[in-house]
């Protein structure tokens, strides 16, 4: 079978090659999946570069999320059937014609959810949903996030709207305002405007901003901090700028702001299964109903993985780059 494999860490478009490997055999509690479509996430690219939270043993097949058809059942797996369409995330080796993963992680997909949506259903959308709960946001609360054109940020805004939570979405380009409005996302403000902070305060109408989600780092993190209300929460989610967080000691001290880091993989390790089930149930319903839209930025054949990861590394995409087996 064909796989997208790297024998060293480095720029994904340089180190990934299409390599033939034997068909994997599922062990007890596992399933083998015939990959239909897989998404390219930032963490996939960082893993290939060797700079993510874990380093795979080399050579390694890349990719961590996909939609596919159950092809074989390991010992003890009775709740799934061969031929069933499922989504899986948190796996290793998704960029291959076949991959193996734990049966407990498989999410059966209704027909209403397309392959394009199913291939990116978990990592980013679930992060968005869990971020809202992580921040303790309830109906009527106000929050703010930067990098609002990002995959997680878009979904966070959509889920928040469905829950009655007000999120102020910061973008860097004036044309991004209409782009997000076109997706049904409200409260979008461009930081290119000199008076953007005044616009944020006016939009909130005096209500305290209870939480801020920062995906950029650097000085932009401090801009968010300056807008949080008393006893608010600052969540560090990403570091798009590549710069360390710059946070005002005065705002932290006098507003009594709490700063937390967010990594979904860690949270999932300690979350009860019934809670995870509730999250997925809500997410499936939102995507199937159209309340949450998952965009793609182009679909590439597995054979063209070098072009696919190069496209995924470029800014300004409307959605995830996807790989088709």
From TrEMBL:
<keyword id="KW-0276">Fatty acid metabolism</keyword>
<dbReference type="Pfam" id="PF08240">
    <property type="entry name" value="ADH_N"/>
</dbReference>
<dbReference type="InterPro" id="IPR020843">
    <property type="entry name" value="ER"/>
</dbReference>
<keyword id="KW-0443">Lipid metabolism</keyword>
<comment type="similarity">
    <text>Belongs to the zinc-containing alcohol dehydrogenase family. Quinone oxidoreductase subfamily.</text>
</comment>
<keyword id="KW-0560">Oxidoreductase</keyword>
<protein>
    <recommendedName>
        <fullName>enoyl-[acyl-carrier-protein] reductase</fullName>
        <ecNumber>1.3.1.104</ecNumber>
    </recommendedName>
</protein>
<keyword id="KW-0275">Fatty acid biosynthesis</keyword>
<keyword id="KW-0444">Lipid biosynthesis</keyword>
<dbReference type="InterPro" id="IPR036291">
    <property type="entry name" value="NAD(P)-bd_dom_sf"/>
</dbReference>
<dbReference type="InterPro" id="IPR051034">
    <property type="entry name" value="Mito_Enoyl-ACP_Reductase"/>
</dbReference>
<dbReference type="InterPro" id="IPR011032">
    <property type="entry name" value="GroES-like_sf"/>
</dbReference>
<dbReference type="InterPro" id="IPR013149">
    <property type="entry name" value="ADH-like_C"/>
</dbReference>
<feature type="domain" description="Enoyl reductase (ER)">
    <location>
        <begin position="10"/>
        <end position="323"/>
    </location>
</feature>
<keyword id="KW-0809">Transit peptide</keyword>
<dbReference type="Pfam" id="PF00107">
    <property type="entry name" value="ADH_zinc_N"/>
</dbReference>
<dbReference type="InterPro" id="IPR013154">
    <property type="entry name" value="ADH-like_N"/>
</dbReference>
<keyword id="KW-0521">NADP</keyword>
């Amino acid at each position: 079978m064909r796989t997208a494999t790297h024998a060293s860490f480095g720029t994904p478009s340089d180190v990934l090659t299409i390599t033939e490997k034997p068909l994997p055999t599922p062990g007890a509690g596992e399933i083998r999946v015939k990959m239909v479509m897989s998404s390219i996430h930032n963490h996939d690219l960082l893993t290939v570069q060797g700079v993510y939270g874990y380093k795979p043993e080399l050579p390694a097949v890349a990719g961590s999320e996909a939609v596919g058809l159950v092809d074989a059942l390991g010992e003890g797996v009775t709740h799934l059937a061969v031929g069933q369409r499922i989504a899986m995330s948190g796996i290793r080796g998704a960029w291959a014609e076949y991959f193996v993963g734990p049966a407990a992680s498989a999410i059966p997909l209704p027909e209403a959810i397309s392959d394009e949506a199913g291939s990116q259903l978990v990592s980013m959308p679930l992060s968005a949903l869990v971020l809202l709960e992580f921040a303790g946001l309830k109906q009527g609360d106000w929050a703010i996030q930067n990098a609002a054109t990002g995959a997680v940020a878009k979904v966070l805004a959509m889920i928040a709207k469905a829950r009655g939570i007000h999120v102020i979405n910061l973008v860097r380009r004036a044309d991004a305002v209409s782009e997000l409005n076109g997706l049904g996302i409200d409260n979008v403000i461009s930081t290119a405007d000199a008076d953007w902070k005044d616009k944020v305060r006016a939009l909130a109408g005096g209500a305290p901003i209870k939480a801020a989600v920062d995906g950029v780092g650097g000085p932009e993190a401090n801009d968010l901090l300056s807008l949080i209300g008393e006893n608010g929460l600052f969540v560090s989610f990403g570091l798009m700028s590549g710069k360390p967080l710059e946070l005002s000691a005065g705002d932290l001290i006098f507003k009594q702001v709490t700063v937390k880091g967010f990594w979904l993989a860690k949270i999932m390790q300690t979350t009860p299964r019934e809670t995870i089930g509730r999250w997925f149930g809500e997410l499936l319903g939102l995507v199937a109903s159209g309340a949450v839209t998952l965009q793609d930025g182009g679909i590439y054949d597995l054979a063209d993985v070098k072009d696919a990861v190069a496209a995924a590394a470029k800014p300004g995409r409307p959605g995830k780059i996807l790989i088709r087996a």
